[in-house]
Design goal:
The complex is a heterodimer. By secondary structure, chain A is an all-beta fold. Chain A contains no helices and eleven strands. In chain A, the strands form two sheets. In chain A, strands 2, 4, 5, 9, 10 and 11 form a six-stranded mixed beta sheet that branches. Chain A has a five-stranded antiparallel beta sheet with strand order 1-3-8-7-6, with no helix packed on it. In chain A, strand 4 and strand 5 (about 45-50) form a beta hairpin. Helix content of chain B is about 0%, strand content about 50%. Classes of the chains: A mainly beta, B mainly beta.
């Protein structure tokens, strides 16, 4: 069975500071990994995903994540936070099999202060 | 393209009442999903449909039924609503239904059961 753990339900940073949101996964097969963002009162939208190949994945809005198999991690980073980054972020994992759905973490709320 | 649309956006029910949440996508996607989102719980899969004519249970199917009416539409029915079903419900779709697919989410339905 697969699972996702997001460390820290709430992260606060100052505008311009580094953003680091942590995600660890458990999977018995090579995983497919995703980060989604949810702005207030909206649905989720994809930030980035890792399927195969390059372990450093770049996404939208300046975010990136690195797949580290040895650490079973897929942490999300952004060098410089903007006020507009304030949202809830979800890490998700899949086993890549057809007809299966994503397993989501419980989410991390990012607050950005000026 | 409207993407994934959901109706209604808000609903208040009394315990024991029934209702159907509607979802439609115009992206010609094969797979569709219903999730519920509760504070601190992330998104949990209720049911999914890998392709037209098929449906499967997710993590939390009890108290719900689904219908994949056609390729575009996937409805979620609560036969006898309970306060524990107070939640935000999201419909999503993906092109191929493989675990590597991006899922596209609707704006959600906020349901309160009194």
């Amino acid at each position: 069975a697969q699972s996702v753990t997001q460390l820290g339900s709430h992260v606060s940073v100052s505008e311009g500071a580094l953003v680091l949101l942590r995600c660890n996964y458990s999977s018995s097969v090579p995983p497919y990994l995703f980060w989604y963002v949810q702005y207030p009162n909206q649905g989720l939208q994809l930030l980035l995903k890792y399927t195969t190949g390059a372990t450093l994945v770049k996404g939208i809005n300046g975010f990136e994540a690195e797949f580290k198999k040895s650490e079973t991690s897929f942490h999300l980073t952004k060098p410089s936070a903007h006020m507009s980054d304030a949202a809830e972020y979800f890490c998700a994992v899949s086993d890549g099999q057809a007809g299966t759905a994503l397993i989501f973490g419980k989410g991390t709320t990012l607050s950005v202060s000026s | 393209n409207a993407g994934v649309t959901q109706t209604p956006k808000f609903q208040v029910l009394k315990t024991g009442q029934s209702m159907t949440l509607q979802c439609a996508q115009d992206m010609n996607h094969n797979s569709m999903y219903w999730y519920r989102q509760d504070p601190g719980m992330g998104l949990r899969l209720i049911y999914y449909s890998a392709s037209e004519g098929t449906t499967d249970k997710g993590e939390v199917p009890n108290g719900y039924n689904v219908s994949r009416l056609n390729k575009r539409e996937f409805s979620l029915r609560l036969e006898s609503a309970a306060p524990s079903q107070t939640s935000v419900y999201f419909c999503a779709s993906s092109e191929l239904g493989g675990g590597w697919d991006e899922q596209f989410f609707g704006p959600g339905t906020r349901l309160t059961v009194l």
